[in-house]
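Q: My labmate handed me this sequence with no annotations at all. I'd like to see what the chain might look like in three dimensions before we decide whether it's worth expressing. Could you predict it?
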Amino acid sequence: MQSVDLPILPLATPAVKVGFLIQHYPPYLGGAECQARDLAEALVSRGHTVEVATTRWDRSEPLREARQGVGIRRWPTPRLRWLRFPWNLLTGFAAGWSLSGRCQILHGHCLSAFVLGGLVAARWRGCPALVKPCSLGPDGDVARIRRPWMLGLAWWMARSAQGFLVQTRAVGAELQGEGIPQARIHRLPSLFPRLGAECSDSAHPLSPPSAQVLYVGRLHPGKGLHTLMAAWPAVARSTGWRWTVVGDGPMRQEMLDWIEREGLQDSVALVGYQPDPTPWFRNAEVLVFPSYSESFGNVLVEALQAGCGVLTTRVGVAADWPAEAPVIRLPSADPRAWEQALRDWAAQPETRRLSRRRAARQFARAHHHPDGVLSRLEALYLGHIDAAVGGSAGRGGAA
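A: Here is what I predict for the chain of 399 residues:
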């Protein structure tokens, strides 16, 4: 997603100096990285100060700069893969030590070596720190740093954070299963800056019902694409609809071969990675998202805010939404269920389809408005800062 210019909003809480730690930062293109950028810029728009410490993965990027009011410092990182973990651990410690001397709280994004080093530095300097795991499951953040060869050291570093920010209940449950007390786990959904006046019906009226099915995401087996590939030929024959696939990944060639083999050139289009998929959401009738596992699933909210219908599995935020959410939840490995759901959607009268898309947009505004996310984060920052100041005062008095 591209950066969003946010209006200056009245500050509801005292201004806070926040230090962000993240191994990669835009222009690196990744969901966690773009979320960190959006959050940093939104906090600045509300009167806070944000400094970002990250690695200089692209030598063409300057060591220091400011973007949208956010100060960015890039620390050197080696090209040799085997050297990156220890190097980033040390540079993360140096970055965390530096930020802890200027900021009131540190906010780490993902459990990378760079962030882990920064968390330890913050602990040693007495600066409160929060960290957000960015993925879950056997290939997720926690699983990676819990590997036996790390001897528990990386996990000890992660536990040095005062609090963990989780996007969904599933991520929180994984942390609790690893021994993190529930009191240190805080729910904080992803931030969607466009979910304000910009996605109102007056600013962007819903387009007429279309015959376009959309997928946005990585082309990877874990996203459930084989389920859609098994269901699609029958859907295309019975409905005449077109499936547009936005994204790239290791399954791209497999999907191209499948399109050729099945003769689906007129009903499936692979358009590759798109830096801003918003126009695709606005022009689509329904998003299909058969993923097996997600820490959140940003595309689900992005689709709803654009007024796009959603067929999804019970993953990420979709598992947390109430039963009355305007989405259809399906099993991940049942092509017949997906085929029937798409047929049923196509068979609805246009008025019904338009009504469901309008309900999708209203739900997104009600449940994921950015002001609610930012107010929650500000409260967490201030609570941890106050606790750290109180603890320091208590230790001083005891001495």
